[in-house]
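seq/struct pair 1
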Amino acid sequence: MAITLRIKKRFKVLKASIICDKEIRTILSECMNTATRIYNKLVYRLRREYENRKGEVDLSYKHLSAIIRTISGSKNIYAQSVENICKEVVRDFYSVSRKRDKDQLPGYRMKTTLSPIRYRKYGFKFFKINDTTYLTLSLGRRRQDGIKNVTVKLDSVPDIDLNKVESIKVSYNDRTDTFEVSMRVEVK
């Protein structure tokens, strides 16, 4: 009889500030606005479906992909990030289905909100030049403006092995008016 042990990985999240010029700030803001628009459109369509079908919603990836194809500008963001937005919406709808109060469907995000962009394992790359850490983010291959990736400088990066970063989240901090990256690192 073979016994298999499942070892659960442990992670910690570290943050760093992003230093970028005005052009890259505009590109990142545009991507985050697109993420907000995708989230809101998915929630809108699924809420309508929930009301029309009397409480049933099709949360399959095939159905969500069909909805995303109808959203303008959805190709201006990395495909894996769009997939993460879909997972977020599905999680929000499943949390509603577990509750007894069905009137509380997932809400919308404000149009002016910059939603975070998540990358898991792919779509980002770290490199160092003279003790300065840089991060290259993929924006997707089908962008209308032709920009496929951006490289930003990171400020105050913790002393870690950047090869062990599992995923990152690029977000906007309203209080400091800066972009930040949260790095999820495996801990032994």
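seq/struct pair 2
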Amino acid sequence: MSSYSVRVKEVDVGNITMNQLYDLFCKYTKNERGRHMMVHKVRADYGNVGAVFFTLMGSPPKGYALYTFGSIIIYNSAGDPVARLFGHITDLDHWADFDLYIPLKERGRGISALMIGVENWE
């Protein structure tokens, strides 16, 4: 049971990919697909990833998510928690510490997102 004062939808998603996380992020923040998503890994002791912070881009940002210890909490643009997902992001290692998820239009079974290693930008 959730300890939040606001009613938060809790869902066991098991193992999911970044594409699936993006879809759920858009669903629970009531945003259409197409917005970019910032990915920011926070490193803890010994260089391990301790948490990952996601932002659904916009002005102001359209939503936030925090992933840590098998739990993903999704917040709307006002900072209210709207969903808590239980599971693991299986392809997180493929993403840089500071990265940008750019959804592309579906083209059959082709690529559905573009990864850009933002940490290498000058």
